[in-house]
Amino acid sequence: MAKKIVLETKGLTKRFGSVTPLDSINMQVREGEWVAIMGPSGSGKTTMLNLLSCLDAPSAGEYILDGVATATLTEKQRVAVRREKIGLIFQQFHLVPYLTALENVMLAQYYHSMIDSKDAEQALAHVGLGHRTGHLPSQLSGGEQQRVCIARALINQPAIILADEPTGNLDEANEEVVLDLFKGLHREGRTIILVTHNPELAEFSDRVVRLQHGRVVHDESAH
Amino acid sequence: MAGDRRPDTTKTAMFLRILFKSLKVRKNRVFITFFSIMIGASIITALASVYFDISAKMSRELRAYGANFFVGPSSSGGERSVESATIAKAIGMVPPDKLAGATPYSYGVVRLDLGNAVLAGVDFMGLRRLSPYWQVEGKWITVDFDEESCMIGKTLAKKMELKVGDSVNVISNEIGFQKTLTVKGIAETGQAEDEQIFVNLPLAEKILGSGGRVNHAMLSIVTDGTDVDGLAARMQKELPGVDAKPIRKLSYSEGRILEKIKGLMAIIAVIILTVTTLCVMTTLITVVSERTREIGLMKAIGAEDREIVLQFLAETMIIGLAGVAAGLVAGFALAQLLGHAVFGSAITFRMIVLPMTLVPSILASLLAAALPVRMAVGIVPAKVLKED
Ligand SMILES: Nc1ncnc2c1ncn2[C@@H]1O[C@H](COP(=O)(O)OP(=O)(O)OP(=O)(O)O)[C@@H](O)[C@H]1O
Ligand SMILES: [Mg+2]
Q1: Atom of ligand 1 nearest to the CA of A48
Q2: Coil, strand, or helix at residue A26?
Q3: A92 to chain B: nearest residue by CA?
Q4: pLDDT by residue (tens digit) across B300-342?
Q5: Whether residue B87 has pLDDT greater than 60
Q6: Domain-by-domain residue ranges, chain B?
Q7: What is the pLDDT of residues B220-246, one digit of tens each?
């Protein structure tokens, strides 16, 4: 029962001058897969995620996301890919500070297509924040802020969810909550790529991709 | 979720929501920007108001150049006329070498062949000195015993179909006195006089039956070295029932000042606008750097450059328009101060000041926003989002 390939890279490479933080990555991710990217600090995890999320363009290689060859796209076209196909979750939460939780989710709807506040409220309820929709990020705990980010990443039904150390700034209790959310997303059949240092988080993924010096040194099912 | 959305908030509503919340959260910066634009706009408004109003008054009052002193019945007495003799006494109180010209005026409504008109009895010798700017077709009446001639304002002449040399019947509405007069001159004055008919005072007295009374007198007094206020006070004291006052008009030399400082005013306006632009630009650059992450985030989740530009320009425009509105009010108040201090005259608001202030202020705001907006557009989300 091989599922559709959502994401595929061929020789994906990123160079910054003489530095090559990412060197010829070949990888395929299938629909509904949960992939954990691990590796020591400086191994190229964030660089890779930036390429996969179309925040950055590769120096060489191919990257096909949900049927779209993205490697040679212009910045303007990459914005559209981010908007249409990707749900992004960052380590530092990154919410617009003067907008409420609900408005932060609506912001993604605003850039994407149309705004349905009921839908945004549901997304917040889905991450357990149905009662905090009117609060500003500064009035929310770190864990709650990250849950708002998750709701925002999900709101436009992205083909793939990309998260860079989503629990990196959270205490254990909140980490647990976020992990549970990811488990739930996985059960719903979402495709997830998650960068983490945390073996516990990786444990629940289908597959672990280990990077070292910008190369894949290990790629296999976690179980 | 995305598939079965029912839009309940329009994009415009959301845009405005983001706009106002963003402004609200940065009150201090918004205020600095607002204040800079307001100061710039108010200086331009003040200078433009003074310039255009004084220019307009100049062109109007230079034509009326001459009469600068009024003698008439005191308003408290309820009288609408004064004894001719009293007026003569008042005029007599002006030192002869300081009196450039003077005439009493006696007004009444008369019927001409083709309709009613205001008739003014005057002293033509005095009137001519008071009104050297009158454009007269035909001739001035030169002697005060001429009771066969009249002068007539251009507009009235046209209405009554009268030409120089024509005869016109003048009938008093009240006492039925009738007289046929020859039109000796037709005067173009650019003022109310264009609608009036003028005769010598003694004749007017007969036509109107005014019984030795006149309505008021206008005088032209050489103001250099004359205490006109003191003179007015003495007249009122010595001649009960008389109201005497200098009419403050712009002097020719004041008008010259205005022309001379016109260039200076333009330079000041440009300097102020430049300073405003720099100040607004500095503030906006600070705002962009404060919002680097927010902008990076917006781009990361799908905002196009266009949307970032729109957001910033709209914020700047809102502050700009508010600043201009406040600047117009403050500037107009400042114009009053300037008007009184320099020209001794209140300043009337002129419509031209509106675009004169609005256009350069808004252009300055846009110019100030150009660099910060470019900075905002240049933000690379991958770079700014990983910083802690
Ligand atoms: N813009 C850049 N210019 C130059 N070098 C860069 C740039 N971005 C990343 N690098 C280098 O690429 C390498 C990989 O960086 P990256 O951020 O991908 O590591 P990481 O695996 O995410 O590390 P960490 O676990 O600490 O987040 C590092 O050596 C880094 O210094
Ligand atoms: Mg990293």
Answers
A1: 18
A2: strand
A3: B388
A4: 999 999 999 999 999 999 999 999 999 999 999 999 998 888 7
A5: yes
A6: 2-61+256-387, 68-246
A7: 887 666 777 888 999 999 998 899 988
Q: Where are the beta strands (DSSP E) in chain A?
A: 5-16, 19-30, 34-38, 60-65, 68-69, 86-89, 160-164, 192-195, 207-212, 215-221
pLDDT value at residue A223: 47
- Report CA dihedral (B200, B205, B210, B213) to the nearest 10 degrees: 50
Among all chains, which residue has been given the structure tokens 């430049």? B274
CB-based contacts of B355-360 (< 8 A; 24+ apart in sequence): B356/B44, B356/B45, B356/B48, B356/B52, B357/B41, B357/B44, B357/B45, B357/B48, B357/B324, B357/B327, B357/B328, B357/B331, B358/B324, B360/B44, B360/B269, B360/B273
Q: Are A194 and A35 in contact (CB under 8 A)?
A: yes
CB-CB neighbours of A171 under 10 Å: 11
Contact across the interface for B305 and A107, Cβ inside 8 Å = no
Nearest to A116 among B5, B15, B297 (CB): B5
**Number of C-beta neighbours around residue A17 at 10 A:** 5
The Å distance, Cα B29 to ligand 1 centre, comes to 35
Please give the DSSP secondary-structure letter assigned to residue A151.
Answer: H
CA-CA distance, A193 to A184, in Å (whole number)? 14
